[in-house]
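About this split. The held-out portion is used to measure sequence recovery: a designer receives only the structure tokens and must propose an amino acid at every position. Recovery is the fraction of positions where the proposal matches the reference. Here is one held-out target exactly as it appears in the evaluation file.
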């Protein structure tokens, strides 16, 4: 997977679910889900399939998902998430043509394990290596799925400049004319480029980037909704909450509660119980 400037951040991890564990969510990112041991019944909208150990699948943003983990054994699975990515209609059609499950490359688990050792390190070198590992995991998947790397097409320079500007200045107030001027195009032309290549507008793209940063803060900090809204560039907490619910189908507080429930319901390591003497 070619690095794109509209990827906000990567997340790589693994979880172990107790027998009968479940998870329901609205998928907002591009994610690889791979099972090491056990199995999981996956539902995306109205489509159902089962993922067994040694299999991997690609989950696309904008769908309702439900996971029902094995009733008889613990299920250990890994995931690699690209947050904030915007997919063109052509790319979505390409990805939808990939079989629901393919065989997991033997290189993915060692890469996942390596990435997990880097996640807590805050220095720039560790962050860059972490992102490179995520790109390698996606590349391994697409290679296994038979998708050549030349499928990734570069975006027009005006869009790339806009994405770079938004990624750097999303916390600040700025107007569409200012963004267009930075990209050396007219407002109308910039809007047409975004609609043609990203199926959105520059302002909606800005909102999506702000929302993805808000998701990260809801998950990783204890900041309240108002603090998150202002830190992510929204004009008011009400505006933030309204856009968040439109995009994620949940309020910010409901989303945070769901993430906390997910964390509490997962076992990251299986530790045998000591026998009582």
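Reference sequence for scoring:
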């Amino acid at each position: 997977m070619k690095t794109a400037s509209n990827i906000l951040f990567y997340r790589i991890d693994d979880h172990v679910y107790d027998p009968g564990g479940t998870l329901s969510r609205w998928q907002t990112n591009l994610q690889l889900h791979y099972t090491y041991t056990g199995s999981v019944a996956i539902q995306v909208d109205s489509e159902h399939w089962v993922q067994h150990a040694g299999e991997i699948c690609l989950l696309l943003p904008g769908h309702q998902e439900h996971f029902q983990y094995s009733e008889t054994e613990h299920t250990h699975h890994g995931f690699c998430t690209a947050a904030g990515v915007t997919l063109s209609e052509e790319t979505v059609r390409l990805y939808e043509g990939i079989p629901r499950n393919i065989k997991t490359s033997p290189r993915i688990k060692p890469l996942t394990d390596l990435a997990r050792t880097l996640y807590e390190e805050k220095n720039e070198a560790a962050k860059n290596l972490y992102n490179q590992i995520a790109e390698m995991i996606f590349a391994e998947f697409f290679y296994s799925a038979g998708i050549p790397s030349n499928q990734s097409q570069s975006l027009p320079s005006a869009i790339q400049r806009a994405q770079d500007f938004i990624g750097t200045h999303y916390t600040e107030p700025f107007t569409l004319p200012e963004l267009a001027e930075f990209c050396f195009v007219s407002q109308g032309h910039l809007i047409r480029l975004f609609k043609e290549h990203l199926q959105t507008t520059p302002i909606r793209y800005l909102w999506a980037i702000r929302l993805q940063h808000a998701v990260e803060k809801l998950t990783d900090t204890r900041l309240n909704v108002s603090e998150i809204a202002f830190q992510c560039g929204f004009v008011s907490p009400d505006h933030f909450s309204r856009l968040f619910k439109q995009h994620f189908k949940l309020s910010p507080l409901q989303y945070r509660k769901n993430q906390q429930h997910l964390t509490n319901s997962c076992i990251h390591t299986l530790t045998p119980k000591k026998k009582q003497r």
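Annotator remark: The chain has two domains: 9-152, 157-262.
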